[in-house]
């Protein structure tokens, strides 16, 4: 079971970080997607989705400015989720486990970028000879093959031995440190959500956010009802904005 799961995790991480499907990689590389797939594999769909969604909240406000990756949500999710499901870690501890691997993913991405510089130089040589096939291979084929090894191997090894290692460490770790990880794991998702509010939040729109928050928190409406109300509010704001532009023109 562990071997098959490790192979699956390695392939999922490769798929989520590659440019295969391009636009789809944003979805297939998200912790929420990993939580769905791995939750089904372990027969713990609810737990997988909760852990995946919570990890994704940390990175929801991160922007890859200039193409630079400040943290890798894909590696954070694909390592933490299967280990948490195997060892029955709480969501907070899973989040605390995920963050260091999100940093490690940045180094893997730098290895990918460095290796790509070699293929660029080779593509330039093929361009001088008008070798279209060579340019294609240097732009797509060879980098994708190399990326497979860069992404698959580390995830395969970590997930294969990770659960036993984490169990051993957790048993040997003082309870105070474990409690610290739990507290940090509870704060980080809120921090990620705060970042996205700073990025997209506008002063005139913030009241709608708080209305939605308190409606869910105190009125107890479910997700579908919140989505319907949010869509209606967004439509009202949009139509009012269009009418104002027409009046000004």
Summarize the SSE layout with pairings.
Elements: H1 2-17, H2 25-28, H3 31-42, H4 45-59, H5 73-87, H6 91-128, H7 132-172, H8 175-200, H9 206-219, H10 223-248
Helix pairs in contact: 1-5, 1-7, 3-4, 3-5, 4-5, 4-6, 4-8, 5-6, 5-7, 6-7, 6-8, 9-10
Question: What is the CA–CA distance across the termini?
Answer: 66 Å
Q: What's the helical proportion of residues? A: over 70%
What's the average pLDDT? 78
Whole-angstrom Rg? 22 Å
Element-by-element helix/strand order: HHHHHHHHHH
- The tally of beta strands, per DSSP, is 0
Largest beta-sheet characterization: none
Number of domains: 2
Number of helices: 10
What structural category characterises the helix and strand content? mainly alpha
Form type: flat
Poorly predicted runs are none
Proportion of beta-strand residues:
under 5%
How would you concisely characterize the structure shown here?
This protein is mostly helical and 249 residues long. It folds into two domains: 3-200, no CATH class; 202-249. The chain has helices at residues 2-17, 25-28, 31-42, 45-59, 73-87, 91-128, 132-172, 175-200, 206-219, 223-248.
